[in-house]
Design goal:
Blueprint (H helix, E strand, L loop, with lengths): L5 E4 L3 H9 L4 E4 L3 H11 L2 E4 L2 H10 L3 E3 L5 H12 L18 E5 L9 H6 L2 E5 L5 E2 L3 H23 L2
Parallel strand pairs: 1-2, 1-3, 3-4
Antiparallel strand pairs: 5-6, 6-7
Helix pairs in contact: 4-6
The structure holds zinc ion.
């Protein structure tokens, strides 16, 4: 089965970045409800929204949608994982958190002029966005991302264990 693809409303830019790290094609759409619904429908994207009225309009139109409750990113990812069965581990197929473009994995000699020297010497693997050109590496921020995702993963396992 192919991956679900998503569209998120203007309030969920942070969630969009997380879903892209997980490799999900996620469109961030800070535009009017009508445009969001049109795009969701025409591109068969699942709408994730915090807006109850938008959620109801989506359901009326037959657009797959999930209402996102408040809470921190751990709660939100847990809810989505339990409802839509998404994976919560970073993928080889991760997308650019900023623009949703595909990433190419490259070695350090491909990014010599693109990242600071101290970063270059500390990392051997980098990723370049095919769309916007931004370069990524697993720096200190990555440990936070990885630990957040492993917290979600553990909670999913706990929920599954507690199921009767
Ligand atoms: Zn990009």
């Amino acid at each position: 089965m192919s991956d679900p693809i998503f569209i998120v409303d203007g309030m969920l830019g942070n969630l969009a970045r997380w879903l892209r790290i997980l490799g999900y094609d996620t469109m961030y759409c800070p535009l009017s409800d009508n445009i969001i619904l049109e795009k969701a429908e025409s591109e068969k994207r699942i709408l994730l929204t915090k807006d109850k009225a938008l959620f109801r309009s989506a359901i009326r139109k037959g657009v797959k949608s999930m209402l996102i409750d408040g809470g921190d990113i751990v709660d939100i990812l847990l809810n989505i994982a339990l409802t839509l069965n998404i994976r919560v581990k970073p993928q080889k197929t991760s997308r650019c958190p900023i623009c949703n473009g595909h990433l190419n994995e490259v070695e350090s000699n491909n990014v010599i002029n693109l990242v600071p020297k101290n970063i270059l010497s500390k990392n051997s693997v980098f990723w370049i966005c095919r769309s916007c050109g931004k370069v990524y590496w697993h720096g200190s921020h990555w440990r936070l991302i990885a630990s957040t995702l492993s917290r979600v993963d553990k909670m999913i396992k706990d929920v599954n264990k507690a199921k009767i």
